[in-house]
Amino acid sequence: KYMSVKTTSFFIFVAFLLSPALTVRSERQTIISFTSASSVSAQTGPVYDSYKGVKIGMPAAEVRAKLGKPKEESDAEDLYEISPLETARVFYEPDKTVRVVSIMYSGDMNLAPTPKTVVGTDVPAKEDGGIYKMMQYPKAGFWISYVKTGGEGPIVIVTMQKMAKE
User: CA 92 from chain center: how many Å?
Assistant: First the structure.
């Protein structure tokens, strides 16, 4: 079934909570980055670097040209309902360039990407069927995560986020 905007936001928030560590870079700017032993920097480039042509750092006008009119639109973020089983949320920097792209797949899991197509490797599922893997690509300037919830009615969330500059 189709999931509401509140449900979508909740699962994006859950994906952030599933990460091993959270760092806020400054009091005024909440740039989130994740670090852990399992999320080591990749030596090669990312295998998944865009969603339907939308990339980190792209201007909002180009995003809207590629994805069409969002269901909800603002200077800070846009929500797209690609289908009843796929939604995308794009968050923007103050300069109106892409900071985060988060895509949620529900229902038919055959329509969702696999961990290998997102993070470049197969990832074993936990007992409940849940999967989590995150890769950092400092040279590309972003990290990407793959989250699949466990249990009945799983949801897959793929998130790309601009990395904070050191």
Answer: 13
pLDDT tens column, 31-89: 333 333 334 444 578 999 999 999 999 999 999 999 999 999 999 999 999 999 999 99
CA distances from 17 to 11, 72, 147 (A): 10, 24, 11
Q: Which two tokens stand for residue 96?
A: 């109106």
CA end-to-end distance (rounded Å), the chain: 42
- The full DSSP string for 54-109 is B-TT-BHHHHHHHH-S-SEE-SSEEEEEEETTEEEEEEE-TTSBEEEEEEEEES-G
103 pLDDT more than 60: yes
The answer to whether the beta carbons of residues 150 and 129 sit under 8 Å apart is yes
How confident is the prediction for the chain on average, in pLDDT?
81
CA proximity to 84, closest of 67, 69, 51, 106 = 106
Tokens of 11: 């699962």
